[in-house]
Amino acid sequence: MNNKTVIFLTIIISVTIICIAIVVCLFYRLNCESNLSTFTCMSDIITAITAFFGVVIAGLGLFYGLRNYDQQVKQKRAEHFFNLRRKFKENEKFNDICSLLVSGSETLKDIPFAEKRNILALFEEIAIMRTSGLVKTKVAYYMFGYYAKECLRNNYFWYNSGIIDGKQERESPYWKVFREFAEGAEKFLNSNSKLDKIKPDEIKI
Questions:
Q1: CA–CA distance, 184 with 47 (Å, rounded to integer)
Q2: Average pLDDT across the chain, whole number
Q3: What is the sign, positive or negative, of the torsion defined by CA atoms of 118, 123, 126, 127?
Q4: Are the beta carbons of 165 and 115 closer than 8 angstroms?
Q5: Which of 37-46, 117-126, 140-149, 186-195 has the lowest mean pLDDT?
Q6: Which of 1, 34, 91, 106 has the most beta carbons within 10 angstroms of its beta carbon?
Q7: CB 12 within 8 A of CB 56
Q8: What's the CA angle centered on 139, arms 137 and 143, to 5 degrees?
Q9: What pLDDT was estimated at residue 18?
Q10: How far apart are CA 84 and CA 16, in angstroms?
């Protein structure tokens, strides 16, 4: 049980005790002082307390239900994130392309564009998961954005690309999802050009 949960339960218990005391006092003043029998007074008080506890228990049930749902959502996001990261890191051809992007090597020209399309397709998959809420925007940009924007801007990368519908493949509508992701990542990275501007607790799955 974490600190937030302990604090929440402490508040709930404290509020419950206070409310019970208020209910008892109110019923005593409204009923018991109106010449009703002691049995009737006590019966009304017990009924009120029972109803109050019912509301509290229902509230706690709702709280834990929402909390468990939130944990499940985070777990699903984590699974999607680690699957994407595995696809990205464990592919040797992707690693080669990324190394050449970082170094700015002209050797990128010699890599068949079919292999380059595969990494572009992965970035589009990441972009779709981001817009679907399966991967958070900051996580997607922080973990994959650098290589995406390097792919977009590196002329050696697109050297042996084709022409689609009269346009160079980089400008083709077929890579629109990739371009928007790469441009968004570029803006994100430029706005956080110094790594110390990015707080670790902002990057959450």
A1: 59
A2: 78
A3: negative
A4: no
A5: 37-46
A6: 91
A7: yes
A8: 125
A9: 67
A10: 47
